[in-house]
Amino acid sequence: MPNGNIQGINKQGFMDSKLKAAADEFLVRYGGDVFDRLFSRASGARVYDEAGREILDFTSGQMCATIGHNHPEIVKALHQAGETALHMFSGMIPTVVAELGRTLARDWLPAPLQKSLFINTGSESNEAALRMAKMHTGGYEVIAIGGSWHGVTGASAAASFASDRKWYGPSLPGI
Ligand SMILES: Cc1ncc(COP(=O)(O)O)c(C=O)c1O
């Protein structure tokens, strides 16, 4: 049973039965259905629901979490960032960011790729990819396929056909 510090469990160690209702009422959702319960923690290939039940996570997290939930090295890096700097003005390049860019270029990226752009979400990655493709080709038209999902921001949503496209006003031209 998780301890009282975990979200969804009150200080006495009991589940907050109203929290799921609050999530339904107060959180904006999009896309598919959500599970009928809340989840309080995750580790490796396992997630734990609000009642402390251990469940094998065959979704692997959100696609990118294939190294497992809360990998100790990631947790360590987050702690370090919390103790040094979490976020800076865009004109200031943190030393750790320069290090990561160099490591990726030297050890990971296939030639001739060597530049990195660090952003936060899949939607932003696709925005950036579309902008780069347009700049590189000089074109602006994009082919997107039915059932595609690229995110909720402007161009990413315009290139997505897996969810409803009505009621959002005009979409990006050229898709
Ligand atoms: C294939 C694919 N592309 C893009 C996204 C958007 O990612 P994010 O939600 O991080 O913006 C998702 C998210 O589900 C996705 O599955």
Question: What does this protein look like?
Answer:
Helix content is 31%, strand content 7%. The chain contains five helices and three strands, in the order αβββαααα. It has a three-stranded antiparallel β-sheet with strand order 1-2-3, with no helix packed on it. Strand 2 (46-49) and strand 3 form a beta hairpin. The chain is mainly alpha-helical and 175 residues long. The model is unreliable at 1-6 (pLDDT under 50). The protein folds into three domains: 1-70, Aspartate Aminotransferase, domain 1 (Alpha-Beta Complex); 72-108, no CATH class; 120-175, no CATH class. Residues 63, 121-123, 126, 149-151 line the site of pyridoxal-5'-phosphate (PLP).
Sum this structure up briefly.
With 175 residues, the chain is mainly alpha-helical. 31% of the residues lie in helices and 7% in strands.
